[in-house]
User: Which sequence fits this backbone?
């Protein structure tokens, strides 16, 4: 019977792993942040050092070992960064299924295949694991090492510190796993395991010295840029935790059920309980994650599901339910939980998968357009620097959120009244303008979404010295702001009304949803609050009028925008389209000729020779 059970257990785990790998390919994408690691690896291989911008030493990554792995596979095996990162992510994610099964019960002869099947079903229902395994980030690799450390602590304690060292080199949260294991050893042995601590700490000292000498800091720069201590961060962390609870956790059942069995399971699973406690507390205190799809909970999901299934089995056993019936009830409850978890989280995962794919495609294409049309020397600032930065090797790229810029990360501005759904709160607009980047790229085209983007709009020198440029990706338009002259910080005035930026952003929001009348109202309020001409705002008043089929008013605003800024290319573009539609070819040709002289790539990208009639449907 034991051998038969053992074979069935292995078959179940193998089948679940195969299904997991298939599911991973459904989510095939590369997370924008992964390109930051790619750029560090590329610069290292190029001989520029472990830097993001040549000559500037900033630890803008939190995955040292991951970057070194990319360097090794590219430098020695000539394997592409994306291929390497996805391959390792898939292997690591698959290993979690095997290790979770081994954690469920240390005595295989007492482990029934039905219980393992229950665990595998819950793991397969969690879509964050395949999502992050294929994303080219180190998330699943770290989760796999964290779980491996817990398994080693149960089975081969002498291997635990080695795995913890590797985990810590991969991500700083490896120290958190060490803390949970250390606390467990203290509780079980009633003494401090100094030898264990020394074996873990001493090999990491050279790494700490390297960080201090090379970067001047023990903590990576993203820690300062993304995280913090205080009630504001705890509030965000609790929101992040609750969202996980009510979706993936089926309104908290993923925590509530294991807590019901804590008294009976403590002797077997005290380490898992401590690990989950340490990790959840850490996530809450630092304010959660800026990335979506439950990334920070991936390392504890396998432990949570082991505790969930083990509790169900233990409770039913305590109620003297027959073994076969208890196993069936565990399976039934696990299937119910898995179905609820999948259904409650599916829309969130799919929504952000779509968003992330669109973002990386737009950023990669924008980088290619900049490189081909604006030269190789221009500098760029952006709030999402991954794909665009990787696509512009050798260009100076400034992260407006401070991930790769120590000054922004450690000397943030604070502007009261700025509203945004973004968790990244650090920015320094004055410093950014002093750097005089040639191009400033917002995450959502014209619309200032991130606090860093909204704060920048308040500066008069940004509004005066930066004009929009655009590139077409099919029928989609990608917009950035290009500097049209030197920025004079001494002449800069910060507008006192944050309401202007909020109204402007709301106008873009409704315009993107084809609610032209509501958008027009917000743009008019923004112009009132600003109290001065702003060609971009004037142009969008025209665009809203066009959406309301008021072509004459739209033409008036477009021409007014050109009077305020003769380089307002999209106003020229729209006027040319309208005049073409009206049959005023000579006047339209003047506009097309202007675009051909100053923005030649627009003519190429729309496959339209200068002077040729624009398609009617492009006017709207």
Assistant:
């Amino acid at each position: 019977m034991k051998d038969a059970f053992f074979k069935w257990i292995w078959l179940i785990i193998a089948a679940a792993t195969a299904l997991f790998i298939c599911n991973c390919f459904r989510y095939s994408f590369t997370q924008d942040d992964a390109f930051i690691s790619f750029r560090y690896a590329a610069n290292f291989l190029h001989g520029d050092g472990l830097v993001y911008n040549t000559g500037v030493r900033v630890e803008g990554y939190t995955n040292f070992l991951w970057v070194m792995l990319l360097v090794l596979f590219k430098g020695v095996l000539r394997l592409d960064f994306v291929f390497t990162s996805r391959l390792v992510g898939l292997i690591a994610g698959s290993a979690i299924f095997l290790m979770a099964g081994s954690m469920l019960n240390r005595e295989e002869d007492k482990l029934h295949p039905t219980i393992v099947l229950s665990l595998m079903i819950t793991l397969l229902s969690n879509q964050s694991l395949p999502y992050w395994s294929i994303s080219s980030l180190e998330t699943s690799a770290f989760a796999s090492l964290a779980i491996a450390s817990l398994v080693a602590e149960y089975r081969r304690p002498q291997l635990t510190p080695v795995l913890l060292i590797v985990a810590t080199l991969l991500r700083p949260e490896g120290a958190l796993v060490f803390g949970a294991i250390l606390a467990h050893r203290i509780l079980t042995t009633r003494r401090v395991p100094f030898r264990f601590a020394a074996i873990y700490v001493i090999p990491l000292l050279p790494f700490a010295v390297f960080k201090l000498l090379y970067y001047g800091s023990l903590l990576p720069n993203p820690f300062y840029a993304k995280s913090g201590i205080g009630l504001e961060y705890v509030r965000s962390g609790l929101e992040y935790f609750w969202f996980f609870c009510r979706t993936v956790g089926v309104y908290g059942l993923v925590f509530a059920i294991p807590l019901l069995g804590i008294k009976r399971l403590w002797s077997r699973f005290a380490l898992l309980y401590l690990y989950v406690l340490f990790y959840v507390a850490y996530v809450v205190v630092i304010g959660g994650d800026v990335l979506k799809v439950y990334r920070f909970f991936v390392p504890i999901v396998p432990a949570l599901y082991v505790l969930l299934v083990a509790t169900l089995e233990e409770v039913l056993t305590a109620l003297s339910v027959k073994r076969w019936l208890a196993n069936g009830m565990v399976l039934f409850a696990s299937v119910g939980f898995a179905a609820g978890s999948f259904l409650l989280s599916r829309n969130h995962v799919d929504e952000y998968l779509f968003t992330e794919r669109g973002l990386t495609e737009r950023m990669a294409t924008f980088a290619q357009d900049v490189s081909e049309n604006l030269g190789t020397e221009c500098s760029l600032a952006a709030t999402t620097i991954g794909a665009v930065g990787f696509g512009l090797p050798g260009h100076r790229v400034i992260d407006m959120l401070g991930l790769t810029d120590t000054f922004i990360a450690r000397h943030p501005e604070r502007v009261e009244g700025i509203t945004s759904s973004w968790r990244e709160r650090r920015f320094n607009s004055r410093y950014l303008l002093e750097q005089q980047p040639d191009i400033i790229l917002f995450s959502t085209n014209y619309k200032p979404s991130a606090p860093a983007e909204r704060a920048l709009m308040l500066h008069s020198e940004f509004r005066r010295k930066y004009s929009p440029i655009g590139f077409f990706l099919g029928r989609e338009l990608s917009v950035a702001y290009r500097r049209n002259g030197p920025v004079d910080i001494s002449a800069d005035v910060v507008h006192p009304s944050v309401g202007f930026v909020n109204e402007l952003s709301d106008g873009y929001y409704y315009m993107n949803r084809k609610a032209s009348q509501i958008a027009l109202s917000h743009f008019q309020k923004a112009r009132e609050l600003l109290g001065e001409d702003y060609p971009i705002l004037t142009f969008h008043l025209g665009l809203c009028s066009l959406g309301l089929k008021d072509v004459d008013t739209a033409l008036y605003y477009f021409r007014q925008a050109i009077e305020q800024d003769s380089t307002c290319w999209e106003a020229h573009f729209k006027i040319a389209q309208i005049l073409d539609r009206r049959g005023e070819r000579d006047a339209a040709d003047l506009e097309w000729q202007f675009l051909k002289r100053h923005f030649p790539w627009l003519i190429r990208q729309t496959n339209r020779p200068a002077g040729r009639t624009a398609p009617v449907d492009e006017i709207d």
Remarks:
- Residues 608-620 have pLDDT under 50 and may be disordered.
- The first strand starts at residue 380 and ends at 382.
